[in-house]
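Fold this sequence, please.
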Amino acid sequence: MSGAGQLTPRRTGLVLGLAGFGLLALATFYGLRERASEHHCLAGLLALGPRCCAEGQRLWAGACLGLPKACPGGFERTEQGCQVVARRVALSARRYRVGPNDWESEHIAADSGQVEAFELDQAEVTQARYAACVAAKACSRSVMLELQEPGAPMTLVSGEQAQAYCRWSGGALVTRAQWLSATATLESFRFPWGQTGLVCRRASFGLVAGPCGEGGSRPEWTGTRPDGKSPLGILDLAGNVAELVREPDGSLRVRGGSFRSRMAAELKSWATRDYVGPQDDVGWRCAYSTSSD
C-alpha cells in the first residue's frame, strides 16, 4: 500500500496535468499581455487611446493633431505632425514561395514564382506624398486629402488614382509577384518578419475592437512599427492599411491586412480580399524598375 506521502501513478498524472495546465495558462497570459501591451508605440511616441501620437499632440476624431515637440528617429517634423522619411528598398531578382509548411497546408495551397530585380517603396504612400502629386497636377484630389496627418497613409482613393500617383513617381502599382517576393520571400514567411510573433509592437492591427486598441477609426502614421519590418527593412507590409496589388490578369486585389484586422489569418502573407473601391483602410505603395532599358 502506498504511504501518505507517496504519489500513485494516478496522482502523479493529475499533478503533471495540473502543472501543464498552469504552464499553458501562464504562457497564454503572457502571450496575450505581450500582444495587447500598451508599450507597442515607437520610442518617442505616446499612446493616446488606440493611437500613437507625438508629445505635444492631442487625439481628436481619431487623429493625432497639433504641433509635435519632437519626432522619432527616421521621421521628419512638420507643423501638422511627423512623417517617415521616404526611401526605396532594392530587391534583387529572386524566387518566392508562399504557403504554410505545417498543418495549414491542408487548407492553403502553396504557390511560387520569380521576379526581376526592382525597387519598392519602403513605406506606404502618405498623405503628404499624395498631396505633392496633386500640387503637380498629376493626381486628382481625394475626398480625404485634408492633410490632417501628413505622415498617415493615403486612403479612400481609387485604383486609378493610386496608379496615377505611381506613374508620377516613376513607378507602377506593385504586382502580386513583387508583393509576395517582398513579404513571403523564398522561406514562405507567414508574416513579413518571419513565421511567428504577431504582436502589437510589430503591426498596427486590432485598433478598433482589440487586441491592440479600442475605438480606433484611422491607421497609424506609416512606419511607426519598425519592429515588424521585413529582413530588407520594408515597413508595414502587414497591418496599418491593406494595400492594392495588381494581379496577373490586370485586376486589383487587397493584401496585408489593416488596422481593422483582428485575426492573424487576415495578416498572413497569403491573405487577400476583393478590391471593392475606395476604403478607409486600404492604401498602396509603388514599385520601380531597375532595368537599363
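Residues 1-5, 12-38 have pLDDT under 50 and may be disordered. The helical segments are 9-35, 127-135, 159-168, 176-183.
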